[in-house]
Amino acid sequence: MTHAASSPLSGAPPLDEPETCFHCGLPVPGGAHYPVEMDGEPRPTCCAGCQAVAEAILASGLGDYYRHRTDPGPTGRAVVPEELEQLAVYDDERLQSRFVEMDGEHLREAALILEGITCAACIWLNERHVNGLPGVLEFRVNYSNHRARLRWDNRLIRLSDVLKAIADIGYVAHPYDPNRQQQVADRERRLFLRRIALAGLGTMQVMMFAVALYVGEATGIEPAYERFFQWVSLLVATPVVLYSAQPFFRGAWVDLSHRRLGMDVPVALAIGVAYVASAWATITGTGEVYFDSVSMFTLFLLTGRFLEMGARHRAAQAGEDLVRLAPNMARRVEAAGETMVPVTEVAPGDRLRVRPGESVPTDGRVVEGRSAVDESLLTGESMPLAKSAGDRRVGGTVNVESPLLMEVTEVGEETVLAAILRLLDRAQAQKPRLARIADRVAAWFVAAILLVAGLTYTWWHLHAPLDAFWITLSVLVVTCPCALSLATPAALTAGTGRLAAEGLLATRGHALEVLSKATRVVFDKTGTLTAGHLEVVEVEMLRDSWTAPAALAVAGALEQASEHPIGRALRRAAEERSAAREVVARSGEGVTGIVDGVAYRLGSPAFAGGAEAPGIATPHARATRVTLSDAGGPIAAFTLADGLRDGARNAVVRLREMGLEVSLFSGDGDGVVAAVAADLGIADHRARMLPQDKLAAVAALQAQGEVVLMVGDGVNDAPVLAGADVSLAMGKASAIAQTHADLVLFNDHLPHIAAGIATARRTLAIVRQNLGWALLYNVVALPLAVAGHVQPWMAAIGMSASSLLVVLNALRLRAPRSAARSPAPAAPAAGPEPS
Amino acid sequence: MEVIYYLVPVALVILVIAVGIFFWAVKSGQYDDMEGPAHRILMDDEELPPAESPESDRDRPQP
Fold first, then answer.
1. Which residue numbers of A are catalytic?
2. b/e string for A113-141 if b means 16 or more Cβ within 10 A?
3. Residue A608 near residue A589 (C-beta atoms within 8 A)
């Protein structure tokens, strides 16, 4: 819920002329004034973040970016100094040894993952900007996978400076270890390309010779020429079989050595037998040659495998993007002062300083200070909890208000977070696996083919021993498993692409198939169905001479430096902002300050005074109220609550319409969960669930035969995300939730879940059509082949046509090109709430 | 039709050369980014303020 939509406030800005942000394309909130100047004209931006980014871009002479881009840039965020300080971690030599290649003494090279790339102009912008930095030798971005290679001179510039420079223009870059996956993937890809090239060129040649042979057979070719063409075909087909078709022979060998029948077995059998028989025919000068079929087989099947590999690599990359190399750092207080140390070096008894906005490195006890702590990611609790000396703090929670000094009590395996991780590992090991449809079909299809081929050979051996071998061979070729093995990868590749256009990134190969079978969707509450942070939902005026915008402006000014969720919510809600002086924050109570010469108090009714009087029971369970007052008494009371996300209601309605059950499992208190569930019409809701409770509840549903899609965001959701049949993490979810989810919803737009399930179902329907077609083709062709009526050229044409049909059918899934390019900006506009 | 005995081997030699060139292209990384170059060519490298390019050159380390 954005504040513009939620506020039933008076004086909302007129909506007749919505200005959009020059940089990110989002609407500019009324009253926001952050202009940048380009070509001598002022352009509006929506926030200080975008303004800073746009100014940085224009100042470095890269305004062309705005002329060439096809999609708006990522919304700029005001970069927090602490975050920049964290980047300095990457300068650490020990850490760099994990991902930096040294070239001589000073030259270094690293691979970076770039986030926020939306179009080609982003690449240009990043390359120009970074290459312009002194000390950067080369910076090149790969548009396909959003990876970059950076070479720099360590005497002139440090890695963290480059990362900061990228942050200045609104992108996020972080190093990754290319040895882990990228190099393996690159090598596999290049090998595949070589195999396909050889198969393709070889096939073209062999087909030309085959045409000569076919035509020659019809018109009477001289035997000498026929032999010549056969020999040349053998010469060209041999490298194709030995080099290009290798993966199939290997796969078949692996399958057979595991005593199972996979798709590779009939493929290898058909290619192998057809090649050996054709070679035999060429050498002895008797019988048919099938070199063209052999080569074409290899080419088509390799193409299918290549598609499949592409989808698999993209999924792996998406998973890798989520893994950060940087260890969590802690600020240890020592006799000499504060030093940053990796969390792994922290021992029980150490004292750590945790600043506002930082997460708590490990479990411990507060020694000094008072602050509010956001535990929502760990527990699902939507409101920050007040902590003071003596209270326990759990690693992974976020300090929101003021600095705390804590003493470490547990580290490593002893912490609450580690316990959740262990639960997660167990859940992952026990995750139910649905057999993949292609594998199931393959097993019995292969068995049937081998049986039919065996019977054919036996029967013909008894009746016409000379023809038996050739007819059996034509059975193997004509039952081409080509269409069958292209059927699934082609459809899954197209379907995954379509999902990505909808903002859903699949990080596991099986996600699409299982998603289509889901019978129940289980939502987490905080951060998933709700925004996960407080919003001003109501403003109650207690003095007639004031208007709501004016009161919000004063409140926003008083909270201008606050990191507390209440302060941020008030700041977001304030459409105009005044300047405040002498702001003093009192932890757990509120703030005082002077705005336009008048002293105000803002905080809990007890602190700001007098607002209890006209207290109206708010409809929002667990809402918070803060009061603004001056010397003359209370002025306004603000009600804040964790609002529902845009589209949450729409998403639930659509999922129901699609025949799915919807549940809500939350770690938050009963009242809030019940209120949210009632608001969305979810009957099955459970509150106060610990991570293990969620996992057990989902396992119970699975035991009843349900296929569960879990949607969550927090650390506490990670085990259940790993344990559910298929899982989805929100785009702003904790890293651990994202790495253990099968899908990530990058634009956080909930109705896209329903769209994604629809796409998954359509994909599986296409897979079934394709498999059906392949089987039908076989049913028709097989009896003809068994009866001995199929010529080699007929087999070749039938095979190509059915493969082509299967691929074209899969392409129907593809999203329109424009939609594939800009999923994010379309999201906020779509899916109005049915209210 | 004896000419076919010369033409087909010539075709095969060309085939080997084509495969060789393609293998080299793959090896040198030309197929690593299938999308970027298509967009990159549309971007102008001009219209930079004159201040920037000499600066970045000056600060490059001397070989």
1. 524
2. bbebbbbbbbbbbbbbbbebbbbbbebbb
3. no
| Dist CA A415 CA A58 (whole Å) | 47
Cα separation, B24 vs B37, in Å, equals: 18
At B54 the pLDDT is 40
CA-wise closest residue to A401 among A354, A343, A365? A354
Of A201, A202, A232, the CB nearest to B8: A232
Place of tokens 């930079």: B48
What's residue A433's pLDDT?
A: 63
The amino acid present at A532, given as its one-letter code, is G
First to last CA, chain B: 63
The distance of Cα A241 from the centroid of its chain, to the nearest Å, equals 38
Contacts of A123 in chain B (CB under 8 A): 36, 39-40
Tokens found for residue A168: 């200045």
* Residue closest to A798 by CA, chosen among A477, A485, A488: A477
ipTM: 0.73
- Write the pLDDT tens digit of every residue in A232-248: 999 999 999 999 999 99
Task: Please tell me which of the candidates A61, A137, A235 has its beta carbon nearest to residue B52.
Answer: A61
Decide if A786 contacts A458 (C-beta within 8 A).
no
Query: What gap in Å lies between CA A316 and CA A319, rounded to an integer?
Result: 5
CB-nearest to B36 from A123, A186, A232 is A123
CB contact under 8 Å between A144 and B34, yes or no, is yes
State the virtual CA torsion across A795, A799, A801, A802 in degrees, nearest 10. 130
Give the DSSP per-residue string, A40-92: TEEE--SSHHHHHHHHHHHHTT-THHHHH-SSPPPPP-PPPHHHHHHHGGGG-
Candidates A399, A411, A323; CA nearest to A363 is A411
The token pair at A609 is 């005074």
A721/A698 Cα distance (integer angstroms): 10
Q: What is the pLDDT of residue A830?
A: 35
Over pLDDT 70: what percentage of chain A?
Answer: 87
What's the predicted TM-score (pTM) here?
0.69
Q: Which residues contact A55 (CB under 8 A, 6 or more apart)?
A: A36
Residues of chain A short of pLDDT 70, as ranges, are 1-18, 29-32, 75-85, 179-180, 319-328, 431-439, 480-482, 563, 577, 587-588, 609-623, 792-793, 796, 815-835
Inspect the interface and report whether the beta carbons of B40 and A120 lie closer than 8 Å. Answer: yes
Beta carbon pairs, A and B, within 8 Å: 93
Dihedral sign from CA coordinates of A46, A49, A52, A55: negative
- Convert B38-47 to b/e letters by CB count within 10 Å (16 or more is b): ebeeebeeee
Spatial distance between the Cα atoms of A256 and A262, rounded to a whole number of angstroms:
8
Structure tokens at A12: 């909302």
Amino acid identity for residue A178 in this structure: P
In whole angstroms, what is the distance from residue A483 CA to residue A396 CA? 50
Cβ count near A316 (within 10 Å): 18
The amino acid occupying position A738 is Q
A131 interface with B at CB cutoff 8 Å: yes
Alpha helices in A220-290 (DSSP H): 223-239, 246-257, 264-284
